[in-house]
Structure formats: structure tokens, C-alpha cells
Amino acid sequence: MPTRGAYVVTAAVEGRPGGDAGHCKVEAAIRPIGDAPEIRVSLSLPSAWNGKALMLGGGGFDGVMPVTDGPLFDLPADKVPTPLQRGYVVFGSDSGHQSNSASAPIPAVDAEFALNEEAFRNYAGDAIKKTRDASLALTRAYYGREAESVYFAGGSNGGREALVAVSRWPRDFDGAIALYPFWNGGTAALAFGHVMHGFAKPGAYVGPDLQALLFETVMTQCDALDGLADRLVSNPDACRADLAPIACGPAAATHPCLSPPQIAALRRYASPVRFAYRRSGERAYPGWPVLQGADLRGAQQLGQTAPVSPPVPEMPIIGHFWDGFLRFVAARDPALNALKVDPTAPGDLAPALDAAARSLDAPPIDLSDFTAHGGKLIVVHGLADAIVSPWSTDEYWRRLEALNGKARLVRSARFFTIPGYGHGPGGLSAFEPIWDPLAALDVWREAGTAPDGLTIEDGSPTARGQRPLCAFPTWIQYRGIGDPRQAGSFTCAAPAVSRQGRGAVPPTRP
Questions:
Q1: What is the pLDDT of residue 17?
Q2: Is there a catalytic annotation at residue 359?
């Protein structure tokens, strides 16, 4: 893609004690065509190269440099070797801007960069190709030969980037891992705004104490529907939690309870939403599993305070994304109040919101060009994700099957769902899966062994032991006998009902 060239900023030999055998750490920069920021690139070149390369994706609005010498997806290095330890060249970039928001709960929710059109195009996808080509040129210069295989791995927006990579440049990548992919990022941003409008209504926000009460109520009603009470909802299709037991009655409440405005906001969060003004692309979002096992507690879930504009660090993380998307990506008006614009009926802003959403949506396509040279794709989503909905990835997969044919797609792609897994590692999940997705991808690509029959281990403080890794649409069911810490005590069961429309939630009984 067009640039004004690239250059090396620094290069030094590094190595972690007890880690990799040593590597050349390179920081580089790719010059823009116009006045956009440079794309900053990080590259780790191992002394013992296996001939393969791995590109890392970002998250949120990006603007953060990837850690190229660390563990993939924060997997524990004592159980899963880092890509660099295995001899992979590992590289990635900040997607073409640096986050500068000191007040954000995480740096990757700063969207001010989007006021620059070239910087936004880089974030939307162009930086993937530019970073890939510059990094492989450096790899070729360092080792004197080409990389034999090039993979991509990312979660959230990095998952979207993985799908963009194999869709836009199918011959440039040999495999990809997309975790909880933000594939329809623009449409999801509109849905974020819809949810935030609900919680911003008077008395509608659900604070930390009630978030815990909601979670325990769902566990009481749905935990054992998979055959085992393990504080995981493994069969969300069977779960439609009733909020009546914790709804406030007509008398003054003497115990924690959910008021009618709070129940309405939760139902809005859990239910599908349509954007009737959109004339093309994605026109709906399916809702989230907030009444089917998602845990809303935590700084990066529903937060500690109601959404406001301008945003504050303690408010829900999806409110930050909606705020940045509206003010900087769509309206290009930093002074706009995000809670004054209804994303389902935005008035004069409808064309701008539609165009902005389409620019960040990466709908499924025919993958023939990617699979023709042996490309492999692994998609993973947690069933307890309250940020990027797993039901949205279900929809992506169904459409991918329709476009490619189930029989053809299964030869090159897999979609796995994991109960209790939220939006990534780091204490956000009731179940923290420990497994080796990079090894699974590489063995599939190199040896033709599909990633079937794999097991995952719970790395959360609960440490439940092992579970099978089940491909969509099957779910993890306890056999009724056997050690619940062993994967062999479970089976991947077919759903009893269709997963179509499962984001819908029935009204709470009075």
C-alpha cells in the first residue's frame, strides 16, 4: 500500500532470563502519505528462527504497541511457550497512532486520532498490510530468506483485524486466530450507544452490588442446566433467567433489588436492536448474554458508575467506545454529547453514523482465495462476553457457512465457544482457558491435522480442571458421572433448539 517508505528507529539484541534464547528487537516506523502519524512497528527476530512469522493484532481503538516478546493472549508462559521462545518472528504495530488519553480506563479507547482521515484508514485496516510488508522486508534482510508461513493472531479489535487480514489480503497470510472478534465494530458501536442510553436514564444504572446480585440470580437458575453446578452456564440456549425474584416490589425495598428502570436497561442490553435508517451493510446487533451467564462486574464490564458525557474512567467500557466512535469517527465533533444522540434514531447524523459503521464492519466473505493455498482460520468466543457479543460471532459463522458451504468451510476453519470466558484474560472471566491455539493452527496448516478433540484448562482462581474445546454449535455437557475436573467426563452436545434469535429475552413476569 502507498507510503513514503519506512525506517529502523532502534535495533538491539535482547533476551529474557529463562525466556527466549535471545533476539534482535527492532523498532521501526512507516511514514504516512499525508500528515497522519507514522505507523510504529515492533519486531522481534529470534536467534533460532523456525522460518515462520506471527503478526499480533491490537484492541479497542488501538494506539498501543504490542508486546512482541511476551505470551500470546496472556497465556501463562510456564505452560504455553511464547511465540518468540518457539522461534517465531513476532511483529505488530500501533495501527498508525499513539493513544494519548490519560483519563481512559485503558489507553485503547482514545479515538481522537480518527479526525485524521489517513490515520483512521490505517486503523480500519490499511496498517495491517503496511505493517506486514515492512516487517517481512526486515525479516528477509536479517535472515537472508523469506518467511515460510505468516500467521495473524488477535482478540477483540485484533480479532477483527485477523478477519480483515485474511479477507483483504488472503494470499499474504497462511493462518489466523481470531478471538472474540469485533468483526462488525461499527455496528457494535451503535449497539453500545443504544445500551448506554438505557443505563443513562434516571435510576436505570445497575451498580456493582446489583451486578453481583444479577450474576448470582442467573447462576441459581441456569448453572446446572448443563448437568453440573460449576458456576458456568455451558448451555446458554436453555437459559432465560427470570428477574422477578430480585425485582423490587410495590413496598419500600428492605433488601437489594432491581427497579423497573434497571430491569428495562438490562433487557435492552440483552435484546437485539435494529438500525432502520441503515441502507446497506449490517443493520442489527443481537444483544448480549447478560441474562445467560455474563458477569457484568469489573472495571472493564459495566463499571462503577452510570455513563456520562464527557466520559469518566469508572463508567462502562462500551460507553467509552460509543463516545469516541460518535464524536471522532462519525460526527467529527469533539464537543458533541454522546448521550444526546440516539443511535437508533440519530436524525441528521444518520448518514455519518451509517458511513462510519460500514468503515469498521468486516462482514464474512467467500474465503476461497485464502483457503486455496492452505490457509486456516480458528475463531474463538467466550459465552460470557459482555463487550463483544458471542451471538454476533454466531451470526458471522452462520453467514460464513452459507457463503462457503459447510463441507468446504470445515476443511479450513473452526469456531469454538467457551463457557464462562468473558472478554479476554486478566481476571475478566470466570473461566480462563489455557490451551495452545498457535500450535493448533500451525499443526493444522503444516501437517493437516484439524484442531478437533482439544482440551482446555481453567486458569482462573477457581481452577476447575479441564474441559473439552467444543465447536459451534455444540456445548459442553457433563456426562453425569466421572471426575468433573477431567475433560473426558464431558461431551460436546448438540443444541436442543436453534440458536437463531437467542439474544431475545422475554419480558420479566410482574
A1: 54
A2: no
